[in-house]
Amino acid sequence: MADLGVNADLSQTVLLSLYMQDVLGFSAVQAGLSHLGEGAGATLGGMYEARLLCRFGG
Of 5, 8, 35, whose CA–CA distance to 20 is shortest? Predict the structure, then answer.
């Protein structure tokens, strides 16, 4: 089931990038840079999740 979630996230990112380029008129660089917040949030969330699991179990 985890693979299904990862595939859904990746496909959403690709489709959103295409939407930004085709409909909103972003360049490829602008569309890519707009996803930096998503990547940073996922990285920080993963780090805190690991700490919380070590502390509280799960």
Answer: 35
At 14-56, the pLDDT tens digits run 899 999 999 999 999 999 999 898 889 988 998 899 888 888 8
pTM of the model: 0.63
Amino acid letter at 20? Answer: M
Contact 21, 27 (CB under 8 A): yes
Q: How many domains does the chain have?
A: 1
* Full residue range of the structural domain in which residue 29 is found: 2-56
